[in-house]
Description:
By secondary structure, this protein is an alpha+beta fold. It has helices at 14-19, 21-29, 61-70, 72-76, 156-160, and strands at 2-9, 35-42, 49-57, 79-87, 107-114, 130-137, 144-152, 168-175.
Amino acid sequence: MEFLTYHRDRPGSLPLRDDMLETHWSYMDGFAQQMIARGPTLTEDRELPTGSVHILDLPDPAAARAFAFDEPTYQAGVYRDVLLRRWRNLLGRTMWEFPGGREGDDRFLVLGLGEGEPADLAVPANRDDLVAYGPLLSDDATAWLGTAAILRAPGPAAARAVLTADRYASIEVHPWHPGGRPS
């Protein structure tokens, strides 16, 4: 089962986040084989982190909750909240298989929080610009709750356009950078 977690930083937590970076990476090392995508969201100027996204394959919702809430920087108070949803990998690949590589400041996390009938269930035509793409689902995967995409785009407006605007209660666009230990 695939899950998306988005830990949003608590205001003023950057010093603690920085102090715990190695602890965070060590925790994530234990999930390396399950990772589909990971990385921080950033301020508009891409200078500071605002959150942390992890998409991974885990056995069940209980394992996903344990992953999200046992994470050491969450436990220490770095994050103000966590979005945790089932997710379906419509691309069938990981971020390490993304044809655009890991470099460039032109990547975004787009979260469409849904209402009503499901939307954007097919992979968009610009597949080579997509790092990750799929629906957000209920724990039992029977209800569509939105769509999440990580993609390469020339700016926030172009990134937002990957989703059908009038089909969502809200759409969030966050600058994003591939994560993990530096090479």
